[in-house]
Amino acid sequence: MLEAVKVALDPTPAQERGLMSHAGAARFAFNAGLAHVRETIEAKGKPEWSLYALRRWWNANKDALAVDVDGMPWWRENSKESYNSGLEALSDALSNWSKSRRGLRKGRRVGFPRFRSKDRTPPRFAYTTGSFGLVGDDPKALKLPRIGRVHCMENVAKRVGGARVLRMTVSRHAGRWYASLTVERPDVRPIRPPRGEAVGIDLGVRTLATLSDGTVIPNPHALRAGERRLKRAQKSLSRKTKGSHRRHDARERVARLHARVADRRRDLLHRLTTMLASTYSDISIEDLNVAGMVKNHRLAKAVMDVSFAELRRQLEYKTVRTGARLHVIDRWYPSSKRCSNCGRVKAKLSLGERIYHCEACGLTIDRDLNAAVNIQVAGSAPETLNAHGGTGRRNDASRRATQDPVKCEPSNGDSRVRLGADARKGVLQARTN
Ligand SMILES: [Zn+2]
User: Fold this and answer.
1) Which top-level group of life is the source organism from (predicted)?
2) How many helical (H) and strand (E) elements, i.e. helices and strands, does the chain have?
3) Could you tell me the residue ranges of all domains in the chain?
């Protein structure tokens, strides 16, 4: 099984310049290769866009392409791996476009690749060959050829745990550099699922999640405060003049706040999904129409959509590890409007109604709890079983360090808040009247 171990890097200023240079090299190779392919197509030729062909073309032309104003080649300043990762991305983009055009690719139509601009493309490059990865005598460092030994924010050797490292992708996000290592671990499937019973989960805006057994996982104050700050920063950004320095600063601020809120939420979800996957034998969640997810300006809704996708992604791989069964129910199932006691479905239920009251049987129950119970019941139907079929592995997963569905959760230090069995009793707030 392939897993991604992602750690934050702590580079020196000189190393940071090196990282930026390598990411720029990847972008340069991508753009140069794309220009070459476009020229070939315009000259009615048949372009070759396999990684092998692009690499051969790059090596034959790099002395003429990667030169400064005096004609001095500069490509030697960066590892060849950086150019290679740019060409690899181009090769993938072209093949995705071609397959999509011929109807051989699922999902939304993929367009012809566009040139990558410095402002809009997140800096990124990867190492796939050579002596990159862990450092023998320092568990909190990574070796990046041509850049050096870069200190990490956590014990990366412990996270990798002796597994073989196949690939290392380095990227920058919201002002911070990360390394994502693709590691290969032996498949270990547990024989029996956890001892707990079945559970349904309702994700909410007001609370993080409500479980069908009455457990309520509240939205922590820090998360709400972060979301409020983000909202204010976004408002402030929208008032800045386009192209101004202040707009640029405001944009950076929004990006940083976004990243912090997302990190906090992801961390919480990790604790929740680890608890769920190791406690319950059967876990039911609602399906989410990811493709139909539209960009909207309602922050709470947008954040919830992301949480939903993330919750499912984490549960998919964690249940494989613990042996719990994951059930995904139809998203058109009326989990909120249906009475969990008698099954009557209400014609209308406004978002403001926090308490569900059934006219037919007289049940009065917390709205989210009612939905969670319905999700659990719907999930026990046999046809919903094992939404995640297989191991979650893609054919070309080894080349997709950062997009692989099988990811490892961030290691939890001592600050970890346990959401285990004992803590669950503490937050038990079954508001059934
Ligand atoms: Zn009822």
Assistant:
1) Bacteria
2) 9, 14
3) 2-11+124-184, 14-101, 196-222+255-395+409-426
- List, as ranges, residues with CB under 5 A of the ion ligand 1: 339, 341-342, 344, 358, 360-361, 363
pLDDT tens digits for range 390-408: 333 333 333 333 333 333 3
The residues carrying an active-site annotation are 202, 286, 368
Alpha-carbon distance of 270 to 291, in angstroms, equals 24
Q: What angle do CA 391, 374, 197 make, to 5 degrees?
A: 55
The predicted structure's pLDDT at residue 351 = 75
Q: Ligand 1 centroid to 380 CA: how many Å?
A: 20
196-222+255-395+409-426 carries CATH number 3.30.420: yes
Looking at the DSSP bridge assignments, the partners of residue 73 are 67
List 183's β-bridge partners, or say none: 3, 165
Q: How many angstroms separate the alpha carbon of residue 338 from the centre of ligand 1?
A: 8
Check whether 310 has a pLDDT greater than 70: yes
Question: How many angstroms does the Cα of residue 364 sit away from the middle of ligand 1?
Answer: 9
Token pair, residue 207, equals 């609370």
Ligand 1 centroid to residue 353 C-alpha, Å: 16
- Show Cβ contacts of residue 94 under 8 Å, excluding neighbours closer than 6 positions: 37, 49, 113
Backbone dihedral region for residue 243 (phi beyond 0: left; psi -120 to 50: alpha; all else: beta):
left
Centre of ligand 1 from the C-alpha of residue 359, in Å: 7
Query: Which residues on neighbouring strands pair with residue 200, listed in sequence order?
Result: 284
